[in-house]
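hey so i finally got around to running both of the ones u sent me last week. sorry it took forever, my laptop kept dying halfway thru and i had to restart like 3 times lol. anyway pasting them below in the order u listed, first the sequence line then the structure token line for each. didnt double check formatting much so if smth looks off just lmk and ill redo it

first one:
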Amino acid sequence: MASHTTGAPSGAPAPSAPRPVIAVIGGGQLARMMQESAIALGIDLHALVEAEDGATGSVVVHSVVGDPSDIDAVRTIISGADVLTFEHEHVPQDILRQVGSDIAINPPASALLYAQDKLAMRERLTDAGIPCPRWAKVTTPEELAAFGDAVGWPVIVKTPVGGYDGHGVRVVSDAHGVDDWFDRGAPLLAEEKVSFTVELAALVARNPSGQVRSWPVAQTIQHNGVCSIVRVPAPGISAELARQAEDLGERIAVELGVTGVLAVELFVADGVDGARVLVNELAMRPHNSGHWTIDGSVTSQFEQHLRAVLDLPLGSTRMTAPATVMVNLLGSNRHDPSEGLSQALASSPEAKIHLYGKSVRPGRKLGHVNVSATTVEEAQAAAQAAVDALFGEPEEEDG
């Protein structure tokens, strides 16, 4: 009788390599949309979420409820993963230091710092010669008064850490407009109030091997401090100005060592030598200004982020239509915006609707609509019609 060796039977396929695993901190709509791309690429996503039934927890099988400041929760989510990434910046640097020897982190903590701390970001970009609004670190009303008198009132004051979507930002007309913030004892960031003509977003991705890809520069329109509409390509700006914005995004990605998607929010302001581009904010993750890429680009920002953090080759960022517009659904008069799906789809057959599975709250980001068309005006009209249907009419009061 012939002897047999242990192992796979003769002719059987060799054991396959394990599927890539990405751990992501955050349970909002960004990680939810990462999951869609992860499924397509055969990547397993593990998520540390705020709630089991939240935007991400309800769609990611391997999700753990916990806080990013809890080292045990973070260690649980990175167990067996190839890389750790984020859908928000609110992850303590101390936590990242503790797990840094256990897993690759993209973007690295050394880069993420500049999306977490606006003062550190302003200092680093200014040292690198990257144009920013005039700014100062202020710790007292007297220092704020001196800055306001120098650049002109009103000025913008920001809490360096923890602010987002207009939170932690105030426009003040005198030195006592943020006395309650000074009482906390931490330094604040004061900036000149830039008289800008348009706001832009430069979206770029970089992988650890150094490959860089940029999407066309977008125009962003804000409502109450929250991005409401994104129009691509940004209308009304010159090719040279768009190139400047794109170059700034790529330069910052390389300068700071960013890996993954980087969004650079920009002001366009008039200068003595013509229009100039100034850096407003940074985000080192997929960003609201890049949601249009899901339907308007060969490679979405979510797929690109997963590729980048795994150090895979980056995809094409070419637009698939002459113009794409994204309109956010901010709140709804409906109990659930999906109640308006039939009306929205009927009003705009070309609309691509993305709902986040969130409970309704005034002004909350509940979803977005993308439309691609020949012009930004045509795309915006169709996207807005679909959003209006999802938002619904005001409920009539009894009596």
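and the second one:
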Amino acid sequence: MLLLIPLALIVAITITDILTPGIQLGPLLVVAPALTASIAGPLGTGLMGVLAVTGQILVPVFQGTRMTASLQAQALGIAMISGFLVAFRYVRGRQERQLERTRSVAVATQEVLIRPLPRRSGPLRIATDYIAAEEEAQVGGDLYASVRHGGATRLVIGDVRGKGLNAIEDTSLLLGAFHGSAYRHLSLLRMVMHLGHAMYWKWACDAADDPVAAESFVTALLLDIPDDVGLVEIVSCGHPPPLLLRAGTIRPLDASSPGCPLGLMPPAEDQYVVDTFGFEPGDILLLYTDGVIEARNREGTFYPLAERIAAWDGNGGPEHLVAYVHKDLLRHADGSIGDDAALIAVERLPSERPRPPGRDAPAADAGVTGR
């Protein structure tokens, strides 16, 4: 349908030129192939160029005059410009196809690295969202993953310092270590030690060739959510605290003693603390990376995540929550954020298995800390 526009221009200019012998509008015919080059490929552009030259030639035929040198020069000029536009559109088409292939590789890479979390894991319903800062760069330093660990769901969400290929490599290493250690049945604290050693060893080896590697780190949260007990265990490695949504209230689950980001130094057990909080059926836990809370609007104001969530109607569960935050975040940032952002919403559903005798869930607002 868009091709009808340049075609109509050719018809209108040619008829006008035929009906007004004293005025030469033929040079305007070049607008048709130029416009076509922006909406069609080289074949369509070339065809419109041929029609434009034909229209120029038909003017003296219908006027009953001879093809003057001026008209010949005009027809030749239209033909030359049309040829240039065809070549330009061919090169541009190749670049667009190459960019599309690059985007498809980026999407495939992200799907391999950042595997979609299951919608259900035991008594949990999970929803995720990844907001890329740039459309062409769909893989960044934000990461998340989950594994089943005995009778619990283990989650990690983190943010690798830096961007580009180095960030992708670091993300791949951390997620590989996280997934690969699932069969070892490590405790949450031992898991933190394992990931910290993996990242520190990697960057220590890279420091000889890349001085920036010595300054690399990962902020992360690691969580264990048992199936049959209404609680969640969290280890913070310098990451923003999750938000607990319960019966219309919102509160951050702040770490009693936040640990340092992974990879800055060889990890030690006394650097990290396992905090335990109540997480009952109906509760929703929102995990996020700093790309969410550091998104700014035109006035430079950071995105007030907790305040904006308070306006959510609470319907639809975790899927609607992440969709609401996604839409509201982009509205706050005028459609573009400065850093990648990841969101995970986890809702505990009523347990399908009876709770073992003697194991009662902690009080709803309890926060128990252990090492």
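quick thing i noticed on the 2nd:
Residues 354-371 have pLDDT under 50 and may be disordered.
anyway thats it, ttyl
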